[in-house]
Each structure stands twice: as structure tokens, then as C-alpha cells.
Amino acid sequence: MLLSATPPPGPRPAQELRLREEAARHRGLIPPRTHPLASITWLGPAASNPALAYRVTGDRAHLEESRRWIEAVVRLPHWGRAHMPDHDLDAGWLLHHLSLTLRWLGDDLPEEVEAMLRYKLLLQGRRMYEFAVASEGSWWSSSYWQNHNWICHAGLATAGYVLGKEEWTGRAKENLGTVLDLMPPDGSHAEGVVYWRYGVPFLAAHLDLLQEAEGVDWWERGGFLSSTFRYRLHQTAPGFAFNVDHGDCHDRRSGHSAGLYYRLAARYGIAEAQWMGDLASGELLWKEASESGVRPGILPEAYLEYLWYDPSVRAARPTETHAFFPDLGLLAARTGWDDDATLVSFKASPGGGHTAWGASAEHRAERGWETLNQGHHHPDSGSFVLVSQGEFLAVDEGYSNRKQAAHLNLLLVDGQGYADEGRYHVYEGVPHERQARQRDVVADAEGGWAHSTAEIAAMYDPGLGLRRLDRTLVFTPSGRLVLLDLAEAEEARAWTFLLQTDRPTEPGPDSSRLIRSGAATALVRRFAPHDASVTCEVTEVEANPTSSTPELRLTRTLHTLRATTARSREGLFLTALTPGGAPGAEQIACTDGHGVTFAETGESVLLSPAARRIRSPRVSADAAAVLIRAGAEPYVVGCTRLELDGVVLLDAPEPYTGKVG
Asked: 223 — alpha (psi -120 to 50), left (phi > 0) or beta?
């Protein structure tokens, strides 16, 4: 598709219009005569989109527009200025786009322009290739789970195929195979949604090039590409415009790639991906383009939308509401997809996810290589994001350079967050055994329940002597949230519960706090402990998201609700969050375990994730959780015996999770 500029058969009027508009978008600009300090990645598509538009329409105005940008780019002695000239993202982007431009325009370029472009691509490709060889075992050359690796190797491969440099394409192909074998088969991505939309299109482009140039079909290899749309889908906020911002996210808008949606839809027959592609390239396009903090952004992807759109693929609006991605320990559940629906996203895993954490340890031990560069992954195991009524209520810190648990919806121990935090590469050098994980996971879309317990004690300083730090999160069918935090230490510690919001929370009766964001609200009820010291503070987070543009600064102001206990060897927080501000949550009196009931919805949550023993007026159970909804069968987690209202519903030799009755 890419090399031959041949899309799937069928009409594509909307995609052609997008291409023609993008091809003309820069006509009022004067190309730079010297290298700006900022990133120049955008100069590549400034040349390639008009080149493709010329191939499609025959309009020589597009040819002349592409030539303007070609001449500007080849004059620059280096590709990239502020950070790693010739050896990083600027060079990778330009190699990809300018090589396609050369292929698409061919003899239609004036002879001297074609010669200059070919020479420049040979020079820059050699520089990139030599750096990849020399730096193997460090930085992007072998950072298999990182967008720099994918982009730079895709750029090298594109140049190699166009210029006939088998040494380049061979090295890029070998790297691509390793990446596909090592990426998680559940499709999740530890760098987060923003870097997913920035980097994964280049994996797809590389696969496209490999199949067209060599006849090698690796689209099914490893399983990541076939599953990754589902990951992206479940990190979409209700209403589809915004994204959940786990990991380094410039903003909550920078998440869509219509071109990639179309390619995944075409290859795997994903109707929802086709629908999302239409939405992103239509209704959401200009909001995404204007409000996104990621450059070059979605507009330059017009060439991918045109070439990757297959009109024969059926489009269907997403309906699946619950999902769990085991590699990243990511649980996502929602009440629906409409603007006012409620969504929670909850995660816990080792740095980079389980696959990357284990494989990178092997690379370190066997080769002495550092392959896990997860600067975009946060210390966020046990943290969650809550969206409801079209607004973000419990929020993530977004992009940060000095990553800290104190910026997330987490727990502090004696005021301390994760061990070795407060830096960009927050997992660098961390011992392999320091891992978080999820257990007792339920993602039941039919019943509407979601449940998981995050084990996060290992992430804190061993000197704190933590024996347990577990957070259990339950999402009810109506979108209520219950959190139970259990902590144990060898010595008495002060335990702090953190909740991050966009605006200060407002105090209410019975130790409650009201979250407001726009017209949306949620009521926070803390049932335990009763004697915590509560404060609300301003937390400022600042970051430079790209070393190629040193002057760029992103800032986010968080309002941090802190509840801190007196010092004790054990800590316990029982909290309910009710979207809409309804005061419906009440504590259930339990002799064993802990419970919350919501009278308005007829939902009750009873938890005992450690002792697995629940005793309340209605329930006697040996279980991690009993989840009850009026008019429906009860749901149990890790249960061997359940008695409800005097009737034994389950008596089993092995723990059972699911509906009972």
C-alpha cells in the first residue's frame, strides 16, 4: 500500500478530500532556511501529503508544493538540532516521509531535485544505521517497547526499501521481529494512549512496507497488533473525544489516529475500529487537531487515512463495557459509551508491564543490555482514574518529569511514595523482584461488576517494613466505586490516602467531600478511619515532554485531598465514590470484613480480600468479595461458601468466582 500508493479498492471521497486539504494546508507558510530549535518532524508530511495528492489527482500544484518542502529539508545539514541530531525522532520521521515522497514522485521531480533528495536520504539513512549499530544494547536501538525504537527503525526501513539498501532493511526487519515477539499479546502499552497513537502507526507502517516489499506477512506475529485496538478503545473516555491519561499524556485530547484505526480495521475486520476511524477523521478531527499537545498531530496522517481506509469493512459503534489487560494489570469498566456514562480505569503491574519487565531482566543478565526504557510509565500501580457525566473526577497527573506517587490516587507511608521515585525513568535500576500485580480480577460486562485487588507493597522502600499494602477496587453496575485499602507494617507508620482532582474538593457532612468538575459531581464518603487528619492542597506538576523542543513546558495543577492516620502497624481506608453526588452510600455493620451499600441502586459490596471471611446481618461467606444487586443473582469472588438471608447458595471445595444462584 505505502510503497505503491495503492489503497484497497472502492470509493473514498472523504479520505481524498482530507488528503487534498492537508496537501494544501501549508501553502501560506515559508519553509525554514535554517534548522529551527524545535522539532522538525512536521516537515516530512508537509512534503509527503502533497506528493500523494499529486499521485491521486494529477494536479501539478501539489507537485510544486511537495517540491518546496523537499528543497527546504534537503538543505538542512542535520535532521534534529536540540537533541541527538540525525539519530532520533526528527531523522526517523523525515526518513519515512521523504523516502515515500521520492518513491511517489519519481521522475516527475526535476532531475536536480530528485538527485539532491536521493543523496540526502542516503546520507541520513547511513547516519541512522551506523548509530543503531553502535548503540545496540542501550537507548532506542534495542528499546523494544519504546516509540523511538519503532519510529527510527520504520524510517530506516522506508529509506532502505526505496533506495535498495538491504543492510538497512535487514537490520530494521530483525528489530521488528523482536519487537513483535516481545510486545504483550493483550495489546496493552505501558507508555499510555498518547504514545500509543504516536508510535504504533509506525509499527503498522513497517509491517505494511515489509509485506509489500518482501511478501512477508507478520501481522499476526506475537498478537499485539491484532489486540491493541481493544486496549485503545477501553482507554477512551465516554463520548469518545477524550482519553484516559495513565502514563505520560500531554493532555486528555491527544489520543486518536484515524489512519491506524483504519489499518487495524482493514487487516483484522474490526468494525469498531472502522467506526472510530470515521469519527476521528470526521466529527472529532478539528478538536483533536487544535487541542492536542502532540505534534505533528492528527492532520498530517491524511496519507495514512487515504491509503489504509478499506470501504468494504463494516463500521459499528462500540458496545463492550468491561475489559482486563493482564500484562499491564489494567482493569477498565464503564456503564456505557454515552457522554454522561461513568468509567473507571485501574492498574497495577511491574514497570513496562509483566512481559517487558521479565524480558528486560533476561537481556540485562544474559547480554548486559538495558532494553527497558520506560520513561513514560508512571509509579501508578494501585492508582485509578474516574470519569463521569462528561468530566474527569479522579484524575492522573498527566505528563511529568519527576514522577511521584504523591501526584496520583495512591497511598503514602510515613509521607513516602514509591522507592526510587522523583525522577524521569522511575523504574530504571529497580530490582526485578519489586513488582506490583493484580489478583482476583473480575471484568463482567454482563453483570456490570468489576473487581480487582492491587498488591503494591513491593513498590515502597523496603526500609518501611511493609508486610501488606493492598487496594481493592469495586465498580458497581450503576457506576459506584468502593475502595478498600489494607496496610500492615513491622513498625507503626502513618498511612495517607490521596485523591487527585481538577478542582478543590468541598467538605460535607459525615466526613464526606464533594468533587466538582464542570457540571459533574461525585460524593466521597470515607467510612474508615474515623480519626484521620484531612487536608486539601495544591500540587503543581511541570514537565518538558520532548527534548527536541527544550523550551516547551506543560503544567498541570492538581488539588490533592489527603487523609492521614495516626501512627499504627495496621492501616485501613474504606471509601465510596458516588458519581452525581447522591448521598446514597452507607456502611454495612460487619463483624468480619467490610461493607458498603447504596440504597438508591440496591447494590451492596462486602469485602474481605485478605482474611476471606465476611459476616454481616444478611451475609455469611468465606470469600474475598460478595457483590449484591437487587433483582439479580449475587456475584462472589474467591468464594467457597455463601449463605444469603439464611439460605446456603454455595458450598464448594475450591474457591469460585462468578454468579451464584
From this structure: left
Over the stretch 193-230, which tens digit does the pLDDT of each residue have? 999 999 999 999 999 999 999 999 999 999 999 999 99
CB of 470 within 8 A of CB of 454? yes
2/210 Cα distance (integer angstroms): 10
Cα–Cα dist 420/422, whole Å: 7
Q: Which residues contact 271 (CB under 8 A, 6 or more apart)?
A: 265, 313, 314, 315, 316
Q: What is the pLDDT of residues 115-132, one digit of tens each?
A: 999 999 999 999 999 999
Rounded distance between C-alpha atoms, residue 83 and residue 129, angstroms:
17
* Cα distance between residue 144 and residue 150, in whole Å: 8
Specify the residue for cell string 509527503: 48
Buried b (16+ CB within 10 A) or exposed e, 32-41: eeebeebbbb
pTM, entire model:
0.97
C-alpha 21/C-alpha 569 separation (Å) is 64
DSSP letters along 575-635, please?
EEEEET----EEEE--SBSEEEEETTTTEEEEE-TTT--EE-SSEEEESSEEEEETTS--E
pLDDT digits (tens, 9 = 90+) for 151-186: 999 999 999 999 999 999 999 999 999 999 999 999
Spacing of C-alpha 458 from chain mean position: 23
C-beta separation of 558 from 397 below 8 A = yes
